[in-house]
Specification:
Structural Genomics Hypothetical 15.5 Kd Protein In mrcA-pckA Intergenic Region, Chain A; Pseudouridine synthase; nine-stranded mixed β-sheet; 6 helices; 27% strand
């Protein structure tokens, strides 16, 4: 679906403009999610900043609206479900799997797989993100919780907003980290020239806090346990690269690495309060084989 910005719309935020144009289809929060997921183009460029100010004459295109209704369809893709009840399920996501359909990745996502394996999913995340409360990057593996109804979705979303979700990641980074533990407290935001990239932005960025602890040192690499206290896009990867220790294999924020064809980042622990029972649930996922192989290689070369 495509819209032309009029003179009267000059200076409106992109999410405000689309919220008005799509009032019958989406709420403003859903419009914002569409923008942040790369579903919206202004001219020929994808714009992921909801605060982008539209200009008269610009063409604003919502990619999702142009898809056939059956594109977000069930697909018989194997997934590792480590826990499931009537309200939630916890998935151990494989590296290389996109969480939900988006521009450039309309099929073969975790959502497509979930729709095949699970009868009911929460609709609070919008039509292309049923059940999705939070995300992992395509090439980050590990634990992710999914909501099966709206009550569970809102409860989990509140826990993420309040930063009470217990999350630990395993990361293998370039260089020898000197301190046994530490924190990176730097605001982050979208880069001005490349909107797909996130950078540390002391002025205008969103607060972001990441704790880390050394698990093992190698000759020129370090295995870390990382706990993000906020949930910004690409936060761990950006913070670690900022302090000079980019995640190995992360070609976007660091360098490629022989022996692993994706960033060496794994969501190994996930804890939350169950939406219905109020019981604290904690799940752990062992390192995937590619990261184990990388560690063995680093050990042998040390």
């Amino acid at each position: 679906m495509e819209f032309i910005v009029s003179e009267g719309d000059k200076g409106l935020r992109l999410d405000q403009f689309l919220s008005r144009e799509l009032a019958q289809q989406f709420s403003r929060s859903q419009v914002k999610k569409l923008i942040e997921a790369g579903e919206v183009q202004v001219g020929k460029e994808s714009v992921t900043a909801a605060h982008y100010k539209v200009k008269p004459g610009e063409k604003v295109r919502v990619e999702w609206e142009d898809r056939k209704a059956d594109e977000t369809r069930a697909e018989a893709i194997p997934i590792d479900i480590v826990y499931e009840d009537q309200d939630v399920l916890v998935v151990n996501k494989a590296p290389g799997m996109v969480v939900h359909p988006a521009h450039g990745n309309p099929f073969h996502t975790l959502v497509n797989a979930l729709l095949y394996h699970v009868r009911n999913l929460s609709g609070a995340g919008g039509p292309i993100r049923p059940g999705i409360v939070h995300r992992l990057d395509k090439d980050t593996s590990g634990l992710l919780v999914v909501a099966k109804n709206d009550a569970a979705h809102f409860s989990l979303a509140r826990q993420f907003k309040d930063h009470t979700i217990d999350r630990t990641y395993e990361a293998i980074v370039r260089g020898v980290v000197q301190h046994e533990e530490g924190e990176i407290d730097e605001p982050v935001g979208r880069a001005f020239l490349n909107r797909k990239k996130v950078v540390v932005r002391p002025s205008g960025g969103k607060p972001a806090l990441t704790y880390y602890q050394v698990k093992k040192r190698f000759a020129n690499a370090t295995w870390l346990a990382v706990k993000p206290r906020t949930g910004r896009t690409h936060q761990i990867r950006v913070h670690l690269a900022h302090v000079g220790h980019p995640v190995l294999g992360d070609a976007f924020y660091g360098v490629k690495m022989l022996g692993i064809d994706r960033q060496a980042l794994h969501a190994s622990k996930l804890g939350f309060v169950h939406p219905r029972t109020k019981e604290k649930l904690t799940f752990e996922s062992p390192l995937p084989e590619d990261m184990k192989a990388l560690i063995r290689r680093l050990e042998s070369s040390s």
